[in-house]
Inverse folding.
């Protein structure tokens, strides 16, 4: 069904169709519309879920953990400080192998208070064992949320999935949305280690080094196995509903000499910049990283690379650039731009390519040695 | 049920716990699980019971135990209880938390779960310090008690968590003590008959922490009640009933020193602090007696 929706509404719509038994959420700007919309679905009888209006994000994730271990489908949503506040429990969710699905509306971290887009919140969660996908359109927010349940609950994965959408520029912007009838695209949730009083066991008790090590490796093994599950799910989604997704979204990359890499809305806006550059005779292409965990295998042989990071690891560098440098063993032009919702136009993006200095780092908008 | 012999023989805590000798918490666990029966999940935040239950892949527990982060037990119970009820299951959801996981780091999530009317039982077994980490002060440590972080005795009073619980107006809340297992058993059974959040606060003497010989664990608990330092009661829809042993203690309490002196943690406590403790006991007993007598 064709409609118009914000990114937040698109996520909520997909959640309604996935029918989680338990939703535990706490409001935070710019995610609040997701909480409100789901609360409305539940109270109006459109969604037969238990809606738990928890008193904090730490409790939101703890409640999802408590619900998920009984074998039911769970969902939550957060942003920025909310995500950081639940950090202890995001680790617990992954370690406990619970297929919780969460939407995170990417937002900067204070102080000072800043409610606009930045990826540092989610990237501080990169080592927790969560799968992370970054979306760029309202349609993709919806599609990725539907797929997230199927991927997380797949018995070769059983890890939580985080759908990331940029605060305001995607969460609050209205775009066309074509909803589907998911049917059996998301099979019933089956958690092999669900709590069963008839078969009592202890979960997460005191664990010695050897077993702990094995459980850590199990997370990584499933993270690696998730690659084929993601591929299969995206293929099945394309077959059923006609929209194709990959680990990355590549635009005019095949014959390009220089590739502009970004995540989220910048990654989509880059396509406009690429068309502009092509008109100027610059052989550029863009690559939008969709899945950050598991991190995709990138083929950048023979290309120059410009990476835009809407995040930073102080004392080290742009986080996405670091991932790319570590994997491809090559120098890149690392651009730090868009922090805290900083305005970056497609012409600015094109400029990063035009004025690239491979091997260097550039902070957009910072003039002189401030 | 009138005698301890009538308590069910089924054991849900096997004889292979990692508890310290004389641990009263493992006694609590036995009677709590006997009262709750097999269709129960115990949610345990970081506390002594994280260790007592045994080391992976072994467990001493014969009901499901879900271990969770320190501050998260009641929130975890919120999710679990809602999930069970949504799936049409009546499984008891019981949080079994220490004083730290209740009075301190667990307070926010517990308050939230009570305010939301979560259908669960929250049990605080209170050994009045962070026992699992080697006896540091908690909000539950009484004034005058030595801990590793109050080496000269705590200067502040014990936090009145029961008053905080009462402020949430739960259908049922009670206090208990490991030295009175039949009373504990009956209160757990009763709590589980209510829908909504219920609370039981168990005083749990701790030989290594309170520094008394292991064989005195029951005796110390009884002295706490007999001196009025700990009061056994229950509140059903707000209506207070003081439990028999505490009624007797209110009529004729033993000297507080009889409770303090056998414990190394109160060694060297000054007369002024003892006097403050006595005044607080008296005030508390008067308050409870007046509340019970009120129409």
């Amino acid at each position: 069904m064709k409609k118009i929706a914000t990114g937040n509404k698109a996520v909520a719509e997909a959640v309604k169709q996935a029918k989680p038994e338990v939703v535990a959420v706490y409001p935070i700007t710019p995610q609040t519309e997701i909480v409100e919309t789901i609360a409305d679905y539940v109270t109006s009888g459109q969604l037969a879920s238990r809606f738990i209006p928890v008193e904090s994000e730490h409790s939101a994730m703890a409640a999802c953990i408590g619900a998920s271990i009984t074998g039911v489908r769970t969902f939550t949503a957060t942003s920025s400080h909310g995500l950081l506040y639940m950090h202890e429990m995001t680790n617990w969710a992954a370690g406990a192998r619970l297929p919780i699905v969460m939407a995170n509306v990417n937002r900067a971290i204070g102080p000072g208070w800043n409610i606009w887009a930045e990826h540092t919140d989610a990237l501080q969660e990169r080592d927790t064992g969560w799968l992370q996908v970054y979306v760029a359109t309202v349609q993709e927010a919806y599609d990725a949320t539907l797929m997230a349940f199927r991927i997380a609950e797949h018995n070769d994965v059983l890890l939580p999935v985080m759908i990331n959408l940029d605060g305001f520029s995607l969460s609050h912007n209205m775009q066309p949305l074509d909803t589907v009838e998911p049917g059996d695209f998301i099979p019933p949730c089956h958690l092999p280690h669900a709590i069963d009083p008839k078969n009592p066991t202890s979960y997460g008790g005191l664990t010695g080094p050897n077993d702990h090590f094995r459980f850590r490796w199990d997370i990584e093994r499933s993270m690696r196995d998730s690659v084929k599950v993601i591929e299969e799910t995206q293929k099945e989604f394309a077959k059923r509903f006609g929209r194709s997704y990959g680990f990355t979204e590549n635009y005019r990359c095949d014959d390009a000499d220089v590739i502009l890499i970004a995540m989220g809305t910048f990654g989509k806006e880059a396509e406009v910049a690429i068309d502009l550059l092509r008109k100027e005779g610059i052989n550029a292409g863009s690559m939008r990283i969709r899945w950050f965990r598991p991190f995709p295998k990138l083929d950048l042989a023979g290309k120059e690379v410009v990476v835009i990071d809407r995040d930073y690891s102080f004392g080290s560098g742009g986080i996405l650039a670091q991932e790319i440098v570590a994997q491809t063993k090559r120098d890149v032009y690392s651009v730090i731009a868009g922090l805290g919702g900083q305005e970056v136009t497609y012409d600015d993006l094109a400029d990063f390519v035009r004025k690239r200095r491979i091997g260097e780092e550039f902070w957009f908008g910072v003039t002189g040695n401030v | 049920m009138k005698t301890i012999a009538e308590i069910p023989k089924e054991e849900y805590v096997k004889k292979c716990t990692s508890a310290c000798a004389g641990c009263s918490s493992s006694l609590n666990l036995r009677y709590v699980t006997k009262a709750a029966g097999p269709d129960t999940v115990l949610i345990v935040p970081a506390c002594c019971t994280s260790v007592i239950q045994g080391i992976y892949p072994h467990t001493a527990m014969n009901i499901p135990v879900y271990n969770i982060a320190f501050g998260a037990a009641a929130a975890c119970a919120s999710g679990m209880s809602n999930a069970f009820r949504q799936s049409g299951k009546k499984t008891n959801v019981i949080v079994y938390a220490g004083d730290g996981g209740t009075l301190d780091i667990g307070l926010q999530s517990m308050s939230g779960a009570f305010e939301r009317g979560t259908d669960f039982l929250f049990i605080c077994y209170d050994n009045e310090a962070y026992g699992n980490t080697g006896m540091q002060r908690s909000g539950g440590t009484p004034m005058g008690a030595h801990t590793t972080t109050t080496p000269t005795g705590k200067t502040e009073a014990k936090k009145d968590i029961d008053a905080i619980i009462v402020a949430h107006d739960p259908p049922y809340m009670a206090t208990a003590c490991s030295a009175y297992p039949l009373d504990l058993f009956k209160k757990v059974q009763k709590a589980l008959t209510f829908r909504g959040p219920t609370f039981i606060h168990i005083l749990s003497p701790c030989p290594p922490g309170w520094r008394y010989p292991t064989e005195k664990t029951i005796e110390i608990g009884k002295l706490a009640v007999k001196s009025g330092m700990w009061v056994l009661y229950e509140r059903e829809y707000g209506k207070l009933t003081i439990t028999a042993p505490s009624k007797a203690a209110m009529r004729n309490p033993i000297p507080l020193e009889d409770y303090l002196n056998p414990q190394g943690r109160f060694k060297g406590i000054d007369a002024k602090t003892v006097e403050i403790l006595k005044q607080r006991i008296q005030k508390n007993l008067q308050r409870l007696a007046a509340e019970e007598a009120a129409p």
Observations:
- Residues 42 and 265 of chain A are 30 Å apart (CA to CA).
- Residues 209-241 of chain A form the longest helix (33 residues).
